[in-house]
Amino acid sequence: MSESPQRPPRMSRMSTRAVVVGGSLAGMLAAAAVKEHVDSVEIIEAHGLPEGPESRPGVPQAAHFHVLLSGGANAIEDLLPGTVKELLGAGAHRVPVTTNMLIYSPEGWYRRWQRDTHYLITASRDLTDSVVRRQVLKDPRVSVRPHTKVTALLGSSQCVTGVRLRAADGTESELSADLVVDASGKGARTPQWLAELGISGVAEDRIDSGFAYASRIYRAPVSTRNWPVISVQADPRGGEPGRTGGIVPIEDGRWHVSLIGTPGAQPSREAAEFEPYARTLRHPVIADLLAHAEPLTDVALTHSTVNRRYSYERLKSWPEGLVALGDSVAAFNPVYGHGMSVAAIGAVALRARLASRGLADGLSRAAQRAIAAPVELAWSLAVGQDIHYRTTKGRNAGAADRLLQRYVSRLSHTATGSFHVATAMTEVLTLQSPGTALLRPGVLAAALIGPLRPQLDEPTFTAAERGLLADAGIRLPWLTA
Fold it and tell me: Domain 17-58+126-205+309-384, what fold?
């Protein structure tokens, strides 16, 4: 048995430092995870960080709607107690799933089952980032070095001992560290840095369905307090291009609206085409509501929806003193809303390994394997959907994939009329239970029986929501009394 790599001796053990690469949400959560186990944490940020809920360079996806799943929200609350309360106080919404959601799945409309155990936090990405950032940076052990880039790792293939830096004026320096956490996002250069240390063979998976996102913020025509999230999902089973859309209530009485399509049905950047595209979805609810809302922004368009994953946990060699987290490990098609939550759950896993091992040898590999667990679940959920579009590149659906899709479709069909199955699916989709929860005997039996209630023909608005619509003079022609 080979010996584990040993950290080279330091001049002094009196002070320990962690360096976090990137001041994104994942970077801030990484700092929260490690700050109790070192004397200081320094976040190296390539750009500046805004004081409040303002856009930050390097987060182009912030233009599109974001949801924080309850699995991720619970993880953030575990790392930074009081953060969810701060978010809600700043205008974010807590949306019970599916109690306060109108979801049109490929198998039909989900019922609005009454429960409060699973939820979404909805807000602009800028607000979520700012609240988390404020919570992290109020700890005096955490500091930020802005306008500075990490250009390389220091150390060897056995042990990372710090980072090489380049300041905005081109000045280069070195910064030693007992632990380096790479949270630099989709543009992470970790594979190149590892190669420079002599570590090769990083497995990369890329699955690209070709989705394009067009998003716009509207002034809502009704109160957004307790207003539901609305989602009209694409149906990949027919072989036609997929069209998806959603309305998410955010702070300040606004709706964040995203329209999403695969090649052959991609939305446009043109404002005049935004609402007509919404009319091409499988149901007109989004288009009919937008007809009464006031647009506040131009349309933001992106084609960056590829699923990309580095399987660092499978490498035969992994250096002590290095951990990768968040999009640096895996980035998902944002239509599924997993990114922030996976980063948060991964940060909790990192903290747990630090609590049990400290900075001792074996920490980095143990942490990387633990971080891979929530990545694996989110990856299977995202890729398990995307591979069934004809336009997807990187992997085709095989016989096992098609069999699994039929089972999941059966579950979704059952969930439209079964509280038990809807709850099981929600546990997994909010990252609060592993995928194996869908194979429990009770869930299998319920799927075999099928839905216990008839399918809904239209979305179900509550009496209070109907009253808001009536007060605003909004008549939805398909909405029955």
Answer: FAD/NAD(P)-binding domain (3.50.50)
